[in-house]
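User: Hey, my collaborator sent me this sequence without any context and asked if I could get a structure. I don't really work with proteins. Can you help?
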Amino acid sequence: MPDSLPTPGPGQPAPVLMRALKRLLGPLVRLLLAHQVTFPILANLLKSVYVEEATRAFALPGRPQTISRLSLLTGIHRKDVKHLQNEEVEPDAPPANVSLGAELVLRWTAEPGYQTRDGQPLALPRLAGRASGPSFESLVESVSKDIRPRAILDEWLRLGIATIDDEDRVHLETNAFVPRHGFEEKVYYLGRNLHDHLATVEHNLADGDPPMLERSVYYGRLRPGSVETLETLANEVGMEALQRVNRRARSLQRADEGHSDAKERMRFGIYFYRAHVDGSGDPDEGGSDGAA
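Assistant: No problem. I've predicted the 3D structure and written it out in structure-token form, which is a compact way to encode the shape of the chain:
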């Protein structure tokens, strides 16, 4: 339960939580400032999120959630709570090419006919009929006949999701799918990936049972070449893990189709971050190396 998080006293958030919050907000604020999201804009957005989450997650069993209680929980004035409750919520629809693209990548990375013997995505002939096996054209048409395969390919080339070799074969980039380019597409996955990462942390801090997987490895005092070696290794083992989970999830999803209790979702992700530590130091420098 979210309200089980320990606090030192009524109305007093735990100092250790506030320190962690300040640290994690740093990259977010840099992102917001780079895209002209000023503090007043963020404050208005936070008000609506506070009211939404308090309404959803902190309701009392068998009792209606009142404006007064929401105001007490959030610290937001009653008239603002009432106004926010009456606002229409815009649907968070993905960019037009994301849902189709995600299904194409899923098939390409999970269907046996589109993979090599070691489970890697095949290089597909661009057009059907040039080879006996599958093609990029047939892959697109297996998902949708409303959009031309060439239109999808051109967009994927622009976003860095795919490349074409000298033999007119289409290669899926190993980091798909998040695109290298395309702001809307990147932001779409930003919201979903970080939401679920933070939700995992919230679950574990609230003593959720069982705890969810949330681990990392940290080392400081490394030379650039050493970090590059570790980054290459992380990419290799990380993509292998993603592809294994992807294939297994695809198989289980098909087996679960039609079952009344098939109402759960999951997300499994990886990341690798590197940074140069200048003279001002790094809050992590001097901390514990190893897994956490």
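In plain terms: Residues 96-172 form a domain with the Arc Repressor Mutant, subunit A fold (CATH 1.10.10). You can pass these tokens on to your collaborator as they are.
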